[in-house]
Amino acid sequence: MFILTILAAIIALSYGLSVLHSAYRVLICDNINTRGFYRQIKKLIRANNIDRAIKLCNAEPNAIAPRLFKSVLTRANRSIGERTMTAQGALYEAERKNLAKRYGYGAFLLYSATFLLATAAVVLPNGLHPWPLIVVVLSMLLGVYVLYKSNRIIRDAVVYFDRVFTLLAARQGVALAQETPRKELTNEQVTTWRKAMDEFTEYVKELRERGGKFTKDEMPAHVLYTKVADPETGMLNPGFDRPY
């Protein structure tokens, strides 16, 4: 009986600890008051105090929003094309941290059900105390909340990152600053965008292999990007025309 209790405890606690680890990463490390943080960054950008804005982002090195903001703030005086390319790369990395999209609710519930059934198979037939089952159920509920919160954190970070990007463009006179967020990309649009970036990465790799004027020093990636991206939106579409 003691061995069965230990077995049930190991199953329940291993699942619970995995959920707690994800909760710590999402709720403690990745989370921040994005709206309040953006307001501070906006004031510094309008005051043309980019260095201080970067230092403010450095003070929150683990949170998603400051890392996104910093990616373009460090290129505030570069071309719009370079900032666009940097922004797309930063957004791609941010989306990779979205647990709700990386794993999905269905996959998480299937994963959780495996531990729940395994624990129940040990506890119920042997009349053990049900605390391991309680641990698994509570951890499952926490896990669902973590998935929801992860998606919310990434979404808010992307919305305010879009505003920071627009403010920097307005600072250079490229576009008027917009105080309303753009529409959130659909899953199809995100898939299309990632496909375009993968094609661009392969294109850059092919050009680098040729050498000559296509080396990193002679023709940086952001210069290549401006030659193949949409000149009006700065976005990249799959099957773009290759000038070289």
Report on this model:
By secondary structure, the chain is mainly alpha-helical. It has two domains: 179 residues, no CATH class; 60 residues. The protein is built from ten helices and no strands. Helix 3 packs antiparallel against helix 4. It is elongated. About 3% of the residues have low confidence.
Secondary structure blueprint with pairings:
Elements: H1 2-29, H2 34-46, H3 50-58, H4 64-73, H5 80-96, H6 99-102, H7 105-123, H8 131-171, H9 187-210, H10 221-228
Helix pairs in contact: 1-7, 1-8, 2-3, 2-8, 3-4, 4-5, 4-8, 5-8, 5-10, 7-8
Number of helices: 10
Shape assignment: elongated
Terminal CA distance = 72 Å
Rounded mean pLDDT is 84
Strand pairing plus helix content: what structural class? mainly alpha
Q: What fraction of residues sit in β-strands?
A: under 5%
Domain module count: 2
* Rg, Cα atoms, Å: 23 Å
Could you describe the largest sheet, including whether it forms a barrel?
A: none
Give the proportion of residues in helices: over 70%
Highlighted features:
elongated, mainly alpha, about 240 residues
Can you summarize this structure?
It is built from 10 helices and no strands.
